[in-house]
């Protein structure tokens, strides 16, 4: 009798129902982090990851009419969203891909639709996809918040293309898309991939890595914020390289781009230093989210690290002040920017590890 009950339950309630997993909030954390920077006193309740329908309802409430999302909200916050939006300036309400925005909400909503089959989540996700398609530039890229340029900073272009790549490669959360939308995504993806390959910087005849932003017409690296000067960048180039390695059956051009980027990561690593966080107290704390200072310490045993920016001409690592003045030592950067911006990091480690596995597909 017990076996019969289990059998009947299996028919009436498929195993997938019991195996449902709440979508991850990881992709939405950048926006939440920026909200936290502006709201140090947070006493409101927050939805848990298991409350994914309520979080998805939040996303729908924050979605703009054009299909995109305003940035830097606590997407899991139990808040009066109408009041939050009413308190924003018009410019703050506009849709953007900045801070890993919009493409992350689209994916989350699609995941929730797949779990619940509730039409409102599918409608909102598709509306977001249409926003991405409509805002792609003629050159194939997407812009960020700060400058009208092809933008890789904050995964603006890369994150969108990664979403499109996954959809085209059979992402189970988007199997509901019709052929018309899939064809539009394919065309957009092809154009976007082309600009990624075009913008890989050639230094003295050798392909290297990528800059954060590129001029819409000339595809020459340009600056964004005052302290984000034109230069090769290890973080953004890591994301691009990982995106490229996720392409099934890559073309020869894609393979060459990956090989060149990996070579650049190996050639540009910095050895013999580490970044130490020195705790600050009281009035010395500039931002509650960063109660420390960052200091470069010599350490011959430290693992290789990378600079965020490198000179386009000779790969010399550099930084910048808020004023836009280029400097070559972290200690010369304004204290607020030393902690509020990632000037050094281990980002390429992930790409280098992934490369070892990716390379195996070409061994016979």
UniProtKB/TrEMBL annotation:
Q: Which organism is it from?
A: Bacteroides clarus
Q: Which domain of life is it from?
A: Bacteria
Instruction: Locate the transmembrane regions by residue number.
Output: none
Q: What is this protein called?
A: Pectate lyase
Q: What SUPFAM superfamilies does the record point to? A: Family 10 polysaccharide lyase (SSF81853)
Keywords, A to Z? Answer: Lyase, Signal
In terms of InterPro entries, this protein maps to: Pectate_lyase
Annotated signal sequence is 1-19
GO terms assigned for molecular function: lyase activity
């Amino acid at each position: 009798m017990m076996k019969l009950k289990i059998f009947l339950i299996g028919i009436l309630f498929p195993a997938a129902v019991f195996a449902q997993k709440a979508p991850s909030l990881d992709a939405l954390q950048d926006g939440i982090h920026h909200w936290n920077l502006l709201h140090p006193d947070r006493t409101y309740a927050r939805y848990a990851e298991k409350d994914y329908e309520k979080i998805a309802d939040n996303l729908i409430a924050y979605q703009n009419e054009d299909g995109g999302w305003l940035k830097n909200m606590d997407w899991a916050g139990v808040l009066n969203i109408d009041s939050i939006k009413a308190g924003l300036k018009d410019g703050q309400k506009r849709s953007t891909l900045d801070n890993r925005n919009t493409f992350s909400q689209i994916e989350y909503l699609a995941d929730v639709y797949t779990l619940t089959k509730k039409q409102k989540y599918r409608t909102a996700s598709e509306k977001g996809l249409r926003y991405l398609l409509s805002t792609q530039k003629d050159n194939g890229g997407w812009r960020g918040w700060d400058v009208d340029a092809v933008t890789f900073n904050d995964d603006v272009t890369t994150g969108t293309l990664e979403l499109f790549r996954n959809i085209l490669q059979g992402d189970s959360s988007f199997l509901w898309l019709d052929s018309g939308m899939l064809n539009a995504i394919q065309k957009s993806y092809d154009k976007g991939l082309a600009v990624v390959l075009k913008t890989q910087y050639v230094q003295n005849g050798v392909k290297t890595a990528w800059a954060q932003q590129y001029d819409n017409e000339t595809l020459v690296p340009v600056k964004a914020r005052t302290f984000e000067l034109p230069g090769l960048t290890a973080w953004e180039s890591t994301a691009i390289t990982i995106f490229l390695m996720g392409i099934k059956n890559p073309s020869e051009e894609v393979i060459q781009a990956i090989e060149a980027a990996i070579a650049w990561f190996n050639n540009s690593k910095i050895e013999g230093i580490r970044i130490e966080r020195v705790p600050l107290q009281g009035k010395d704390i500039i931002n509650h989210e960063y109660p420390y200072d960052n200091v470069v310490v010599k350490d011959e045993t430290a693992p290789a690290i990378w600079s965020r920016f490198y000179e386009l001409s000779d790969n010399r690592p550099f930084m910048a002040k808020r004023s836009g003045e280029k400097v070559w030592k972290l200690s010369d950067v304004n204290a607020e920017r030393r902690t509020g911006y990632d000037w050094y990091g281990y980002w390429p480690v992930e790409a280098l590890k992934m490369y070892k596995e990716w390379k195996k597909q070409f061994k016979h």
